[in-house]
Amino acid sequence: MPSSHRHHGSTLPFPSFLRPILTVRNEHLHLKSTRKSEIEIPNLNSFNEQIFSRFHALSEMNNDEFLSLSWMLKLLDAFDHCLDDFRVITSDNRRVLSKSPADKLATQYFERSVKAMDIFNAARDGVETIRTWQKHMEIIVCAFDTKKKWIGEGQFHRVRRVLMDLALAMAHEKDSAGSIFSNRNRSFAQKGKENQHHGHGSSSSGGHSRSLSWSVSHSWSASKQLQSIASSLIPPRANEVAATNGFVLLVFSISFVLMFVLWVVVAAIPCQDRGSLVHISIPRSFSWSTPLFAIHSRIVDESKRKDRRNSCGLLKEIHVMEKCVNQMTDLVDAVQFPMSEEVKGELRSKVHELSSICDFCNDGLDPLERKLRETFRKVVICRNEGFGLFVKAREP
C-alpha cells in the first residue's frame, strides 16, 4: 500500500487548523457549460439533494446540541446514508468505471478510503482518551459522595491527587494532540486478525502516515492524513463530466463529503497530531455546499472562543469536562476546615455537575464508538465492492 506521508504542509497550532483547511472560495467548476443532457447518471440529482437535506438538518441544530456526542452520531449517520446511496448508484452504473477518467477518479476515492480508515481508528482512540478522563471524574464523585454525612481532609487529599493526574492527562493531550494512546495498536478488526498483522503494521519504516488500517503508528498524524486526502480532491471539468455521463460528479461529491466528515471528527475528538493543515475550498457550484459551509463556519466560530482555543477537542462534552474540572480544582485548593455551609453547598453543586457529565459520557461514548466502528466497516465494504465492480467493468 502506498504510504500516505508524502504530502506535507505548513504546521500551525490547532486553533488555526480550523479556518484555513476549508476556506471557502467561490470556485467556478466549469460545469455551467455542460448541458443537462450530458449528465445521464440516474439519481445523481437526488443523491446531491439527499446530501443537502441531511447536512442541512445538522447545520440547523441549536448550540446546545451542536458538536455534542449526539450530534456526532447524527453526522456519522448522515454520512453512512450518503455512502449507501453511493454504493447503489455505483453498482447500477458499473460500466462507466471502465471509462477514463472515471476509472482514475474511482481509484483515487478507494485510496482516500484507506486513509479514512486510519482517521476512524484514531478517533476511536480519542474516545478512549475521553473515557479515561471520565474515570478520573468518577473517582472524584465517589470521594465526595453527597450522601456521606461527613467529608474530611482525607477525601480532599485524594481528590487533589486525582485532579492533578487529570490535569496532567489533559495537558499532555493538548501538547501532543492525541499521542497519549499513540503507541497502542487498536483497531476495529477482530482481535485475532489484529494480533496476526500487528508486526507488519509496526514494522513500517519511513514516511509519516504509514498504516495498514488496523492501527496507527506513533509517527502518524491526523492533520497530515487529512492533507493527503484533500490534496488531489479537485472538482471535475466539464469534459470529464461529459465523458463519464456525470459519474465523476458522483465520485467527487462522496469524496468531498468523506473528507469533510473526517475534518469534523478530527476537530471534535482528540486525535493524534492534528496541528498541521491544508487549504482547500468548498465549491459553491454544488447544492450541498451551503450546509457544509454553515457547519464549517459554526465550527470555526466555536474554535475562536476564548475558552476553546486551547481545548483538547471541540466536542461539547469536553468543554463541560474542562470547565467543571477547573472549577472543582479552584474550590478544592481554596477550601478551609471546618467548611462553612456555603462551601458545602458549592461543593455539592460541583459534584452534581461532574456526576451529570459522567452520565452523559456513559450514555454517549459507547454509541459513538460503535458508530465509528460501523462507519469504518461501511467504508471498507464500499471500497471492496467498488474494486469488485471495477474489475468486472474491465472484463470483455
What does this structure look like?
It is a single chain. The chain is an all-alpha fold and 396 residues long. Helix 4 packs antiparallel against helix 7 and helix 4 packs parallel to helix 9.
> How many strands in all?
0
Average pLDDT figure:
78
Structural class: mainly alpha
**Could you give the distance between the termini?**
28 Å
Overall shape: it is elongated
The percentage of residues in β strands lies in under 5%
Sheet having the most strands = none
Radius of gyration over all CA atoms, rounded? 23 Å
Helix-strand string: HHHHHHHHHHHH
Low-confidence stretches: 1-39, 177-214
Helicity, as a percent range: 55-70%
Helix tally? 12
Features:
396 residues, elongated, single chain, 12 helices, mainly alpha, disordered N terminus
Write the SSE topology.
Elements: H1 18-21, H2 44-59, H3 69-92, H4 102-143, H5 153-176, H6 191-202, H7 222-231, H8 238-243, H9 247-268, H10 289-304, H11 316-334, H12 341-394
Helix pairs in contact: 2-3, 2-9, 2-10, 3-9, 3-12, 4-5, 4-7, 4-9, 4-12, 5-11, 7-9, 11-12
Summarize, please.
The protein is mostly helical and 396 residues long. The chain contains 12 helices and no strands.
